[in-house]
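Annotated sample (chain length 583).
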Amino acid sequence: MIRQFLRKYGWRYIPGVIFLIINTYILSWTPVFLGNAIDGLNQPGGALDQNYIFTQVLYMVIAAVLAFATRYIWRFYINGNARNLENYLREELFIKFQNMPASFYTQNKTGDLMALAINDIGAVRMTASMVVANILTGGSTLVFSIGQMVSEVNGKLALLSLLPIPFAVFCVIYIGRRVQRKFKKVQTMFASMSGGIQEKIMGMRVIKAFAQEDKSIADFTNQSEAMKDANIDLNNTSALLNPLIQVFFGISFLISIILGSNMVMKGEISVGDLVAFNNYIIMIMGPVVSLGRIINNTERGRASMERLNNIFSLSEIPEKEFEQYDHRIRGDISIRNLVYAYENDAMNVLDGISVELKQGQVLGVVGETGSGKTTLINLLLKFQPAPRGSIFIDGVDICDIPAQAIRESIGYVPQEEFLFNTSIAENIRFYQEDCTQETIDEVSEYSDLKKDMYKFSDGYDTAVGERGRYLSGGQKKRVTIARAIAKKPSILIFDDVLSSVDVNTEKRILQNLKKTMEGKTAIIISQRISALQGADVIIYLENGKIAERGTHEQLLRLDGLYAHLYRQQNKQEENEAFGEEQE
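Output written by the structure step:
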C-alpha cells in the first residue's frame, strides 16, 4: 500500500523536505544575528553602532518572515501529503471491505474494523506527517546548530557543553519504550471498551427487557476503572521524561555559563557569542524532547500498518466474480446432489440436495432451525463457494457465472432485514437509483406497504432511522420486500420474510406477489405452511437432507412431517381466532 501511494504521491515529499531544510537553516542563523546585535550594544567605551544593530535586527526580521514562509510551504507538502495518504488508505480499505467474502464479516468484529478505518489509519497518517517532519527537523537542526556552535562560537565550549546530551537521549529512548508498552496496553483496553459500549448500545433493549441495567453499569464501571488505572500508570511513566531532560539540559546550560563566562572574561568569545551559544542549546533541546514522541508515534504507526497489512493481505473475492456476463439470466435453477460443509466443520450442512426449478416456477422450503435453509440460499447467491457440478443456473455451472451477474439478477429479501439510515423511498430505490415514484407506489402496493404511508407525515420521504428503528418489524420487512421487487429481478428469494407480519397481512402480500412473480423464478423459505401452499414444489429439510418433497396436496396426503406441521399451525391459528372472538 505504501509503495503504491509513493509511486503516485511521493514526489510531493521532495519540495517539502527541501523547504524544511531551508527553514531550519534560516532559523540556525537567528542566534548569530541576536548575538551580533548584543555585541553591537556592548562596544568598548559604551559607543553604540546603531547602523550595525539595526542591520542585525533587520536580518532577524527577514529570517522570521522567511522562516514563516518556508515553514508554511513544507507543512503544506509534508502534512498535506500525509492527509493524501490517510485518504488513500481509507479508500483502499473500504474497497477491500467491499471485495471481501461474507465469511470475513462473521469472523471479524464490527468495532475492530471501525478501529482500523479510524484509529489505525490515523496513526499511520501521524507517522507520515509528524514523525517524518520531526525526524527531518531534528536532524537538520542538530547539524546546523552544532555546526554554528563550532564555527561561529567555540568548538571546545560546544564539545564540553553537549556532553550531558547523550544521557538525555538515552533516558528518552529508555522511558519511551516503557511508555510504548504501556500505551499498547491502554490501546487494547480502549478497543475492548469501545466494542463493549457498541455492543451494549445495540443491545440496550435486551438489557432493559431483562432488567440488567445495574449489572451493565457495574461491568462498564469496572472496565472504565481498569482503563483509568492503566492511563494513570502510563502518565506516571511519561511524566518522568521532561524532568529528566530538563536536568541534563540544565547541566549543559550550567557548563556553558561557567566555561563561557570564563571565556568572555579572557576575551576568547564575546557576550553575544555566549548568548547565541545558549540559544543553540535551546534549539537542540527541541529535537531531544520530541525524540520520545517520534519513537512512540513510529511504533504506533508501524503496529497500525501491520494490522492494516494483515487485512490487505487477505484473499479477496476473485476478480472473475466481477466480470461482465454475456448472457441474461432467465432463472432455470438445477441443484444436483449438493453436499456442503463449512470450513472446520465435521458435519455436512447440506447432504444430497437435488432440485429442478424451471423459469417461472416457485420452490417452497420448510424445515426446522439449523436444517440448512439459509445455507442453501447463501450458496445460490455465492456468499459461500458452492462445490463445482452441484448448482447450475440456465444450464451453466454457478462456479462459471460471475457473482455480480447472479446477484444483479436476484431480488433477495434476507431473514434479518437491514435498512439504511435514509428515507423509505431511498431504501426502496437502493438498486434502481432512477426508480420513479410510480414504480415506488407499485412495489409498495405489492408488498402491502402503501396502506401504511398515511401514518407518516412525510410519506415516502420519512427517515427510517439507524437500521430502520423508526419502523415496526413488519414495516421494515415490507420495505425490504419492496426494495427487492423494485430491482425487477429474474429470480426472487424470500428468506422467512413473512414471520414478522400477521396472517391477514401475509395473505395480502402473497396474493400481491403472485402478480409480480409471474414469469420469475422464486424461492420462498418459510416456517409458515400458509406461505408455501401455492409453490410448484415444496421440500422439507431435516438435518441438511430432503426429508419430503412434493406439492402442498401431495405432502398432505403423505401425512408426514409437513402434514404434521400443517395441522399444528392450523390448530394454533384456530385457537388464536377463538381467543379473539372471546375478547
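Annotation: The radius of gyration is 36 Å.
Annotation: The mean pLDDT is 84.
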